[in-house]
Design brief:
The structure holds two protein chains of two kinds.
Chain A lengths: L1 H36 L7 H34 L5 H7 L2 H4 L2 H12 L4 H8 L10 H26 L2 H9 L4 H29 L3 H6 L8 H10 L4 H24 L22 H32 L5 H35 L3 H11 L2 H12 L9 H38 L4 H29 L4 H5 L7 H10 L3 H27 L5
Chain B lengths: L2 H17 L2 E6 L1 H4 L4 H13 L2 E6 L3 H11 L7 E6 H9 L3 E2 L19 E14 L10 H6 L4 E4 L5 H14 L3 H8 L3 E5 L2 H9 L5 E5 L2 H9 L4 E4 L5 E11 L5 H11 L2 H4 L2 H5 L2 E2 L20 E2 L3 H19 L2
Parallel strand pairs in B: 1-2, 1-3, 6-7, 6-8, 10-12
Antiparallel strand pairs in B: 3-10, 4-10, 5-8, 5-9, 5-10, 5-11
Helix pairs in contact in B: 5-14, 7-14, 8-14
């Protein structure tokens, strides 16, 4: 038994170290920020405006995403058509789509020179502008409507097909079904979806940086950046960072309290037949909804390809250098993320404690800009923070991808331990041998997925790098932002396509790598 | 013992570096653009200094100052080029600059110049630029501008020197009423960009009716593009003047090269590039005079400017006033 105890302490030790690192990066940097914030002057009119803007845009973005997601999710749930599963998969794409790439796509569709404006002009209307409040909300809906749709769709699919069969045999109308089956489900799913999206919009930085920016369209995250880079007011930046953290933590706590959708009891996982929704009007309505949603999602991405391909041949060398830099950051981030996630997951499984996972989730509420500000304050007295731009970007992104990695790893590891834990204990397998022989072959899928996610997220990140960036070593997203703001649209189009391809490629390679020859 | 070999290698590297010393100059984005003065001036200076002149673009003018403060004495900059008179006092207070050492420089500025830290390299008047084919009745004052429904693009005063210039321009015209004026203008502002390049690029792409730039900007379209459709709106209120300045960084290890550059800045090799690449009035008119086309530009009857400490005293409050008014 001594061996077993030894192994448990070792697991706990490694997990504790990894966890301590995460806490140092989130709460430690926050402490540095808090100390510094004391020296700040008060919260000015413009800062209140930033707070107000942040809350209003997040509320509206989340509300629009969820309200639109309900009919679209319903349409997906009750229709079968060729390409449906492809579309549902596509709904997951915005998650690994670099924000700044999406912004480029949205500008080419909804900008003053974009295709919508061109069409409006041709019809004799005024062109539309994408800058400011509505642009920020539009971009947030673009990112989060697919997420909301997936959550709502999951809710619908969780209602066993048998219920609908029963409802049909009882002669229920669409209204009855809505009242007895669908609304109870929505009441459980919608608040959670709203809060998650609200939280995501709360910490959104790149969208506001590219499409907002004036005093009327500044989020707190952007205000942190401005206080930092423009006013050199570290105290003000720290104060804003504190506000941001409190806001994020409060919403995260509420989100934890909101009940996760409970099951309806299981049924056979068969295609849902909806006898009540066969009328031509409803069919046409659903078809139109699905078509519009698809268009909204696919058009900006298609524009990136359309604009980008011709520009590929004349890309400036700076884009290639930036691509290599970003790939390096992505790889470093993968290594860091997995090195942090595995010990924490192992500890969480061994100690059966949900606390570890909850603390890992803390990073969802922590904003990269807050962590960045804290790191800057800590590094500044001893070294040139700008020299650490790339390592800091890799580290912060590794921590930001940690919650997703834990969510994939902890259940898988729990299953492995349940299945093979006693056997391994009996054989006296621990440490490296247990990791290599028992865990690794069975964890390949979640590991590959986690690594892919960490790689894609850090590849496309435009957050902490904006704080630390020096002019001569931009990452690809930063270079794209610079090209975009210098209005060099041709080069920007090329860079956007390269970044899009690189992000999808790194995700695909890792995720695929996890599936090849995987036993599980 | 590997140390001597490494040391020998380092000595070798050092001697190479000596043969080609690098002078690092922080400046703003549009200065180093392909069509900007950077490439011309780099060539001209390198021809006489036997060194490598490296321009580092740090965003717009006011960002150069923030950048310098963030880096402190660790900065790699030897010379900073592209702050303006409105920021001179703030830059002076950082204590990061050394005297330029040039006594009574020969200048062709509309005002007298006495500053032992900073030297001007060009100047101009701020103005709103419009397209004559699209705007029939350009405003002739801030009042008319606010009463019109013309959309405008401006720059953030915290990152951009033209943005700051506009804040002080409105302050000079409206004084205590500046905040109220910004509230009236608010709904005409399409967006507030980080720098001049962004705003001007958006204007050229047709994103707004007018953009804050300089009375000299139409010369670019006229001379470089043979396009006479762009014009500056002449304001009866007078036009705020910008004087762009450069200074030598005190912590530089390239003191001699930096001095040489500051000297060079006021000679024809530098100044003759200014009118047709930076599209501003040169601080010292080159021997060949101003290029054809400049005589067509609007020359304001009255010029406005706050000098040094005066600008510094009202800058923060004026910016805060604008931010507060613009959030409503």
């Amino acid at each position: 038994m001594a061996r077993g105890i030894d192994a448990v302490t070792r697991t706990a030790g490694a997990g504790a170290i990894a966890l301590a690192l995460v806490l140092l990066l989130t709460l430690g940097t926050l402490a540095a920020v808090a100390v510094r914030a004391e020296s700040a002057g008060g919260f000015g009119v413009a800062d209140w405006a930033a707070l107000r803007f942040t809350l209003i845009q997040a509320t509206l973005s989340a509300a629009l995403s969820v309200v639109l997601a309900v009919p679209i999710g319903r349409a997906f749930a009750r229709r079968r058509f060729p390409g449906r599963s492809l579309l549902v998969m596509l709904l997951g794409a915005p998650f690994i789509l670099p924000v700044i790439v999406a912004v480029f796509g949205l500008i080419s569709v909804f900008g003053r020179s974009g295709i919508v404006s061109q069409a409006l002009l041709a019809l004799g209307f005024e062109p539309i502008s994408i800058y400011g409040f509505h642009g920020v909300v539009l971009a947030h809906v673009f990112f989060n409507l697919p997420l909301a749709t997936r959550l709502v769709l999951q809710g619908w699919l969780a209602i066993p097909a048998e219920r609908f069969r029963l409802a049909a045999s009882l002669g229920m109308t669409s209204r009855d079904i809505s009242r007895h089956l669908e609304r109870p489900m929505l009441r459980e799913v919608v608040p959670g979806a709203f809060l998650v999206i609200f939280l995501l919009c709360l910490t959104s930085f790149a969208v506001a940086l590219a499409l907002g920016g004036g005093p009327r369209a500044t989020t707190i995250e952007l205000a942190i950046y401005q206080a930092f880079r423009l006013d050199f007011d570290l105290g003000k930046a720290a104060l804003l960072a504190l506000v941001q953290f409190v806001l994020g933590a409060a919403v995260a706590l509420i989100a934890l309290k909101v009940a996760l959708p409970s099951g309806f009891g299981s049924g056979l996982d068969r295609a849902v037949m909806r006898w009540d929704a066969n009328s031509p009007v409803l069919r046409a309505l659903d078809a139109a909804l699905i078509a519009l949603a698809t268009l909204f999602l696919v058009l900006p991405m298609a524009m990136i390809a359309v604009d980008g391909i011709p520009a590929l041949t004349s890309l400036p060398p700076s884009v290639f250098a930036a691509t290599l830099r970003s790939l390096g950051v992505a790889m470093a981030s993968v290594v860091l993320s997995i090195s942090l996630a595995l010990p924490i997951a192992a500890w969480a499984v061994k100690s059966r404690s949900r606390l570890v996972e909850a603390i890992g989730t803390l990073t969802i509420a922590a904003s990269p800009l807050v962590i960045g500000t804290g790191l800057f304050i800590l590094i500044f007295p001893v070294a040139d923070p700008f020299a650490f731009a790339l390592p800091v970007t890799a580290l912060v992104n590794a921590v930001m991808s940690l919650p997703f990695a834990l969510r994939a790893l902890v259940p898988a590891l729990g299953q492995i331990e349940a299945d093979f834990g006693r056997l391994a204990d009996g054989l006296g397998m621990s440490g490296w041998a247990r990791f290599r022989l028992v865990w690794l072959p069975r964890l390949r899928r979640p590991l590959g997925f986690s690594a892919g996610l960490a790689a894609a997220l850090s590849m496309g990140d435009l957050g902490v790098i904006a704080l630390f960036a020096s002019p001569d070593t931009p990452t690809l997203p930063l270079q794209l932002y610079r090209l975009l703001s210098a209005y060099r649209m041709d080069d920007a189009a090329g860079a956007a396509l390269v970044l899009l391809a690189a992000s999808l490629a790194v995700f695909w390679v890792f995720d695929r790598g996890g599936r090849v020859n995987a036993d599980a | 013992m590997r140390t001597p070999i490494i040391a020998a290698g380092l000595v070798g590297l050092a001697s190479v570096a000596n043969a080609q010393d690098t002078l690092t100059v922080y400046t703003y984005d549009s200065f180093v653009a392909e069509w900007g003065p950077g490439p011309v001036i780099e060539k001209a200076f390198e021809a006489r200094c036997d060194c490598d002149l490296e321009f580092v673009a740090v965003g717009d003018g006011a960002e150069i100052l923030s950048r310098l403060r963030l880096e402190g004495a660790r900065t790699e900059a030897d010379v900073v080029l592209g702050l303006d008179e409105n920021l001179a006092e703030a830059a002076r207070e950082t204590a990061l600059f050394a005297p330029h050492g040039i006594e009574s420089p020969q200048l062709d500025l509309p005002i007298e110049w006495q500053d032992e830290l900073f030297l001007p390299f060009d100047w101009g008047y701020f103005a709103f630029i419009y397209d004559k084919t699209k705007v029939d009745n350009p405003p002739t004052s801030f009042e008319e501008l606010a009463d019109s429904d013309l959309s405008i693009l401006i720059q953030d005063p915290r990152s951009s020197t033209p943005g700051l210039g506009l804040i002080l321009w409105v302050k000079a015209v409206y004084g205590e009423e500046a905040g109220a004026y910004w509230e009236r203008l608010n709904d005409q502002i399409v967006t507030v960009t980080k720098g001049w390049s962004e705003a001007y690029g958006m204007f050229v792409e047709g994103e707004a009716d007018m953009v804050l730039s300089y009375t000299t900007s139409p010369a670019y379209h006229l001379i470089a593009e043979d396009d006479d459709t762009k014009a500056a709106a002449a304001f009866d209120d007078g036009h705020y003047m910008q004087i762009e300045i450069a200074g030598k960084v005190a912590s530089t290890e390239q003191g001699e090269l930096a001095d040489m550059f500051m000297d060079f800045m006021l000679t024809d090799g530098f100044q003759s590039a200014i009118p047709t690449t930076n599209w501003m009035y040169p601080a010292k008119i080159p021997t060949e005079g101003l290029p054809d086309g400049f005589e067509t530009l609007h020359e304001p009857e009255s010029a406005l400017i706050y000098l040094g400490a005066e600008a510094e005293a009202i800058r923060d409050d004026a910016i805060e006033e604008w931010r507060a008014a613009s959030t409503r």
